[in-house]
Specification:
Number of domains: 1
Number of strands: 15
CATH superfamily: Clavaminate synthase-like
Largest sheet: 7 strands, mixed
Shape: globular
Bound molecules: fe (ii) ion
CATH class: Alpha Beta
Helix content: 10-25%
CATH topology: Double-stranded beta-helix
Radius of gyration: 18 Å
Length: 287
């Protein structure tokens, strides 16, 4: 597969590949190697149907489902309404989308977190709406060894209400946000395919082992800043048909504002992490 780099730290664009032609037997191993190596893969002009998008995601693992309905489906990341309009800028739905503008990793607050997100643009706004990414593998390497060693022996607790509460307290009372108890993960996720370590951090972190609240909050803020200096950021300005697959174990991302009176629709499929992806070692042993 022909690739070109997107950023010195991570990410490649993959050229001349029909994603719908990739199968478990033909192409997936190479794609997975690129994913494990580069943490972010961009494919342009790949308008996939929902079924094609789900089929591609399934190659990576089980499809994440946050609902009680077992039907596999895409998650729209969209302000569009059924009557053809958009949700108001101050509506809770819009505020929940705006909370994605905090640096985060998806699904760290779920009992089983995500390995990957496969995100595709369908409708883009006239300006803004980019997604920014950083490598927390490169970011972890930039930290002093003393900090890295401390992090290797630290656990973070994650709660969806933490990031949503930063934007609007009302969001934390919504069932789709408050339904999970805190999750407890190690702060460093080593990739079993290549041994590369990455900081596993998100705007959802609510507590750090052995630290009182104010100290924990300050440290998480400091670590997030250390992961996200401007020169570490890859900014993707979406075109319809673009698809990005990123490694949730080794990156952080955030959305950027757009004119909220315009539609912006991306569709997402998260793939759930498994022990083969290093999940079992991420669980902090009960004390
Ligand atoms: Fe996200």
């Amino acid at each position: 597969m022909k690739t070109t780099p997107l950023h010195p730290d991570f990410g490649v664009e993959v050229h001349d590949l029909d994603l719908d032609a990739v199968t478990a037997e033909d192409g997936y191993a190479e794609l997975r190697h690129l994913f494990d190596t580069h943490s972010l893969l961009l494919f342009r002009n790949q308008p996939l149907s929902d079924a094609q998008h789900l089929r591609l995601a399934r190659l990576f693992g089980p499809i994440e489902n946050r609902t009680d309905d077992p039907t596999e489906r895409l998650s729209p990341v969209s302000n569009a309404t059924e009557d053809g309009g958009v949700t108001a800028a101050d509506a809770l739905h819009t505020l929940n989308l705006i909370a994605n503008q905090l640096w985060h990793t998806d699904s760290t607050f779920l009992p089983v977190p995500a390995l990957a997100n496969l995100l595709q643009a369908r409708v883009v706004s006239s300006s803004g709406g980019e997604t920014e990414f950083v490598s927390t593998r490169a970011g972890f390497k930039r930290l002093p060894e003393e900090t890295r060693e401390r992090l290797r022996h630290t656990g973070f607790r994650h709660d969806y209400k933490t990031s949503r509460g930063e934007i609007a307290k009302e969001l934390t009372r919504m069932a789709i946000i408050s339904k999970w108890p805190e999750q407890h993960w190690r702060a460093v996720w080593p990739n079993p395919a290549n041994g590369e370590e990455a900081l596993y951090i998100a705007s959802h972190v609510c507590a750090v082992d052995g630290m009182e609240q104010a100290e924990a909050k300050a440290w998480v803020k400091q670590l997030t800043a250390a992961m996200t200096p401007p020169e570490a950021v890859y900014t993707h300005a979406w075109e319809p048909g673009d698809l990005i697959i990123w490694d949730e174990r080794a990156t952080m991302h955030r959305g950027r504002p757009w004119p909220y009176d315009e539609e912006r629709t991306l569709v997402s499929v998260c793939v759930t992490a498994r022990d083969v992806d290093g999940l079992a070692k991420m669980r902090v042993a009960p004390t």
